[in-house]
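quick one
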Amino acid sequence: MLNDTICAISTALKDGAISIVRMSGDLSFDIIKEISDIKDIKANHILYGHIYDEGNMIDEVLVSFFEAGRSYTRENMVEINCHGGIYVTRLILNLLLKKGCRLAEPGEFTKRAYLNGRIDLSKADSVNDLIKASSAIQARSAIRGLQGSVERLIMPLMDEMKDVISMIEVNIDYPEYEDEKQMSSEVIKPYVASWISKAEEMINKAERFRVIKDGLDTVIIGKPNVGKSSLLNALLEKDKAIVTDIAGTTRDLVEGKVNLKNISLNLIDTAGIHETGEQIEKIGIEKTLEAIEQADLIILVVDASDITDEDKELMERYKDRNMIIVHNKSDLNKTGEIAISALNKDISALTDYLNRKYENDISLVDEDILNNERQIALMKRSLEELKHMYEHIDYDAIDMIVTDLDSAYHYLCQILGKEYQEDLIDHMFRNFCLGK
Ligand SMILES: Nc1nc2c(ncn2[C@@H]2O[C@H](COP(=O)(O)OP(=O)(O)OP(=O)(O)O)[C@@H](O)[C@H]2O)c(=O)[nH]1
Ligand SMILES: [Mg+2]
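structure w/ magnesium ion:
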């Protein structure tokens, strides 16, 4: 129900100088009049007063009043700045509940902003991304999203699709109007081809940017004793993993995160891969194989002074993956394009290589781009419909083909939330924090 008045504590639930209790809906202003000595409300002002519960003063507060249409939710809204103890904040919240408010669900304020047409769904995504951002680049991309980058990106594509759909429909509905442009498969095909390549480019950029934003899931693999754990430690600049000259030292996965100049690595050091009858090591190797499956990047370490068939077997096995081969122990024997000595912390050949590899992608932060998995998944589904359409365009009747195009278009609508779908909306906003 959209007409009830909702409330929530919008600040973190811990002791602090102030907390904010928020309210949105028709009753907001009346409730404040009822529970405080603020009787003469001025919209879009901050007023000073006191909150009372059955005659007892609970707190001294500042209350911001936002008028419907000019508030975050587009409804009448109130923000009570109270003293930040958890106890007082909760008292005020309970008072609002007693006076007829309902506790907001997570994300419900933003959901109302969307349902009342103040922001589209991609911007709602960005609100959440901004709250969850833990790095400058994540925050920057969320702000771009809030400024409408996704709409700017996909609207031209959507407009073109809509034009073509309506022209096809005119052809179908009014075959007698021969003056109308005839949308034959020859006419439509180049459009579809260009949409396919645009959608592919958007997906490709978004996926490259995801790595820049969230870091590259990277596994360090190789046969035992080549220096995998030494490399992890050198990258992390601390002795996180145990290093010994005994083959099979590492059994569990050891994780760490390192921020290089152009890319962050979410690193996993693994057990050396080889044939073994030893039970614990065997389990370690199974874990290694699982980690490899999940990884965005494989760093295969070899001992430059002792390259064997086992190394070559691993090179062959993962040749189709995003893999770099690192020749370690360059202090003993310097070979290979990326030669390092993990022991001596001399790993710049590897870090320079990685920085160069992701140098171009870093500039994606300044482009309009799809921002998250939800948007990318919808663009992929749209792309599938377009490809299906392209394959059938020469064989199927035009009214069959237009249904593919319709679906492709609707998936793009869903990115912006232009087509109201209750399930989708509820699902999305549930990931939000309470009070946002
Ligand atoms: N000379 C030299 N020795 C190295 C270098 N890197 C590692 N080592 C030595 O190689 C041995 C094995 O190193 P680790 O880092 O434990 O190797 P690992 O690949 O993690 O080994 P497992 O965990 O057993 O699979 C240790 O004695 C290291 O000191 C290097 O760059 N040069
Ligand atoms: Mg190790």
